[in-house]
C-alpha cells in the first residue's frame, strides 16, 4: 500500500482513483494507516457483512481474509485487469501503470 502512495502522482496522471479494501474493520484500518505514516487515498472496509465485496469479486483466501488482488475497473464499471498475488508478494506498480496507460489510449 505504501508503494501506491509513493507513485500516487503517476496513478492520478492516468486518470485513476486508487482505493484499498480489506475485510478488516474501520478502527483496524485507521491504526494500520497511522502505523504507516498515513495513506492519502481511501481505504475501504469490507467488514460488515464481512467479506461481501471480497466474495463478490471471488478473492477470499481460504483463511477468511481477502487475497492480495488488483482490479482495474474502467469508467463504465467493467473490470479490465485482474491480478491476484500471493499474500507475501508485492506486485510491481509498473505493470499496473502499463495496463492503465493501455486504457487511456483506447
From TrEMBL:
Keywords: Disulfide bond, Oxidoreductase
One cellular component (GO) term of this entry: cytosol
InterPro entries linked: AhpC/TSA (IPR000866), Peroxiredoxin (IPR050217), Thioredoxin-like_sf (IPR036249), Thioredoxin_domain (IPR013766)
GO molecular function, one term: thioredoxin peroxidase activity
GO terms, biological process: cell redox homeostasis; cellular response to stress; hydrogen peroxide catabolic process; response to oxidative stress
Pfam families: AhpC-TSA
Keyword flag Transport: no
SUPFAM superfamilies for this protein: Thioredoxin-like
Domain of life (superkingdom): Bacteria
Ranges for domain Thioredoxin: 1-105
Membership in a protein family: Belongs to the peroxiredoxin family. AhpC/Prx1 subfamily.
Function: Thiol-specific peroxidase that catalyzes the reduction of hydrogen peroxide and organic hydroperoxides to water and alcohols, respectively. Plays a role in cell protection against oxidative stress by detoxifying peroxides.
Protein name, per record: Redoxin domain-containing protein
